[in-house]
Amino acid sequence: MVNRKELNPGSSPRAAFGARIRRFREERGWSQEELAMHLGYSSQHISAIETARKPPTLPFSRKADRVFGTVDTTDSFEREWRDMRHGSLLEGFPEYVSHEGRAAEIRLYEVGVIPGLLQTPEYADVLAESAVKRGAITTDQALERVALVAERQASLTREAQPMVFVVLDESCIRRPIGEPAVINAQLKRLVEFAELPNTVLQVAPFAMGARRPFNLPLYVLTMPDRSLMSYAESAHRGHLERESTFVLPMLTAYHQLQAQALSQAESVAMIEKLGKGTP
Fold first, then answer.
1. Are 220 and 82 in contact (CB under 8 A)?
2. Are residues 101 and 181 in the same domain?
């Protein structure tokens, strides 16, 4: 074939997706123009997807599933897209995020790093770039992580804004991430977050010691129908829990954490001191 570009499916998830689209197309004896007609896209778009010059989208993946008969199968194009989009995230977290965007109340506790909902773009970039340097994720996945941070924060400004309760372990605000300008801007962002009418920000100081009920990050959502769900993670996996028998004890422990943590005024004062370089 003239101008046929050889594909390397192993070079990236995007390339693997494109190579699979080409294989399915050629198995049916279709040209790019014919597949474009079935999918409702241009042949140039099909070519860009197949050669990994353009990333696939969720609508494209769903249309491909309908055309190729792979809807709701274990090897559907939608599933491959979701794996590619969220492949660097812990199990359960993408599903959690989908519920977070609709929650009436969000409660979270974080250790070591500022949580995504409160991160500045620069802070998020440093974390993502560090993961790339360690070989934990690809550059594309790093870009997707940063984009996800922005998407989650945008959900907080929706018409029915959720109440957001945040407790940060003191390690979150004392851990240096990036250049001084990055962490200083991040600390300023925390203070601004605390001033919002629908937020509560507290710091769990090191002095709490054994009184701190959690050692790992925890998220608890209250949905508009008042149902509860929680998300907790370890270093290797995350777990989304909907059973109230398990979620209610976590909510109770979260309230105990809030009672023992610094007040919002005390927390903001500590953050502002750190921003000024005061221990």
1. no
2. yes
* Predicted pLDDT of residue 218: 93
State the sign of the Cα–Cα–Cα–Cα dihedral 169, 200, 124, 273: negative
- Taking CA atoms, 210 is separated from 132, 206, 262, in Å, by 35, 10, 15
CA 183, CA 122: separation in Å to the nearest integer?
A: 9
Q: What is the DSSP letter of 102?
A: T
| Same structural domain, 171 and 65 | no
User: Do residues 130 and 122 touch, judged by C-beta distance below 8 A?
Assistant: no
Residues 45 and 172 in one domain: no
CA 84 to chain centre: 13
End-to-end CA distance of the chain: 68
In angstroms, the CA 185 to CA 199 distance is 19
Q: How far is CA 141 from CA 113, 122, 132, 273, in A?
A: 19, 16, 9, 35
- Per-residue pLDDT of 149-190, as tens digits, reads 888 898 888 888 999 999 999 999 999 999 999 999 999 999
Give the model confidence (pLDDT) of 20-71 as tens digits: 999 999 999 999 999 999 999 999 999 999 998 888 888 899 999 999 999 9
Total of domains in the chain: 2
Does 136 reside within a domain?
no
Domain shared by 45 and 101, yes or no: no
Contact at 8 Å (CB) between 99 and 115?
Answer: no
Full residue range of the structural domain in which residue 37 is found: 9-86
For residue 159, give the nearest of 225, 224, 93 by alpha carbon.
Answer: 224
21 and 110 housed in the same domain = no
Say yes or no: 181 and 251 in one domain: yes
Q: Hey, CA dihedral for 7, 8, 10, 11, is it positive or negative?
A: negative
